[in-house]
Every structure is written in C-alpha cells, then in structure tokens.
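Work Package 3 (structural annotation) set out to generate three-dimensional models for the target panel prioritized at the project kickoff. During this period the team completed the workflow that converts sequence records into discrete structure tokens, so that structures can be stored uniformly alongside our sequence database. As a representative example, we reproduce one entry of 218 residues exactly as it appears in the project archive.
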Amino acid sequence: MSKRVSFWQANSLSLVVSGIFVVCLAGQFLAGYRAWNEELREHGQAPTTLGAYASSGHFVGATFENWESEFLQMGMYVLLTVRLRQRGSAESRPLPGEPEEERVDAGPRPWPVRAGGWWRKLYGVSLSTALLSLFALSWLGHAWGSWHHAIDEQRLKGLPPPGFWEHVAGAQFWFESLQNWQSEFLAVLALVLLSIVLRQDKSPESKPLEAPHAQTGG
C-alpha cells in the first residue's frame, strides 16, 4: 500500500519556487517604482502612481527582457541535451557505450567520500556551496560596477558621487538585482511544472515519453 503524501509534500518544490518568484517580482516592482519616481523628480516631472507604473515601459520592458533570456536559455538547454553530452555531468545523458544507469560502485569513489567525516559532509554540499559562492562574487561585481556607473552619471549631471553603501541601499541597485532574480526563479518554475505533462524525447531534463504524468523524476 503506497504511503499517502500531503499536498505540501507533493508540491513543495513548485510552491517554494513560486513564493520566491513572487517575492522577487514584488521587490523588483517596488524598487523600480522608487527608482523611476526619483528619475522623474530629477527631471522636474510629477511622480507616477503604482497603477501607472505597472504598465510603464520602465517596469514592463525590464521584466520581459529578463524573461526572454531565461526562456531562451531553458529551451535551448533542453534541446541541446538531446544530442550533446558532458562526461561525468548529472545534467547529461550517458556517452555512447555507457549504460543508461551507472552503478555507484562502477568506478573509484571521490576521495572526500573515502576520507569520511567532515570531508564527506563538506563534499555533500560542495555543489551548492560553489554555486552560492559564485553568486556572492557576482553580486559584489555587480555592486561595484553599478556603483561606478552611478558615479559617472552623477558627474555628468554635475552632482556629487554617491557612496558605495548609499548606492547599494538605493532603489536602482535593487531594481537591477531583483529583475534578474525573479526571472531565474520563473524559468525554473516553468521547467518544473511543464515537465509534468510535456516531454522532450531523449533529453535528461524530461521524463520518458511513455512515463505517466504522476511519475516523479526520469
């Protein structure tokens, strides 16, 4: 008899990703609203309302610009993984001649696994740690570059340059960040949900064509 699972257990991935996407999109909207009104005031214009900003080119253009790149990325990735391979990658189908499912003991284990203890524990989170570290470095690079761009803009206007933390705490910087973050989570959410009922033959990102919709995983 199969174990009953709750609605949360059955849908936790899409629910959490949806929540993060909504928070980031709302944050982008509010930061963009503040940044656009600051720009309007600089040019002696009356500030816009929240409703008017929702249909403005500043918000709509930035939002769909990021969605465009994310769906192109995901679509091409699904298609490229049909024919192309990367030895040893969990995101690739096996190379010709390799079995579809490699056994765990098919080759030598990585040395942190053999060492055990803390090495094994650290190795168990090494992929997410590396990716989040790259995210942190990218964020710092974005902050530095965006700050220097703001300095150049202020100089062109004959205004004093902003301090680093002043810029990082400002609406424009967070508008730039959150418009990218929300689109990333939207793309992941789309792949998670669309892969329930849609297929791409021979792609590791898709279930087999014959697999029922309720099947989880490959």
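The first helix runs from residue 7 to 42.
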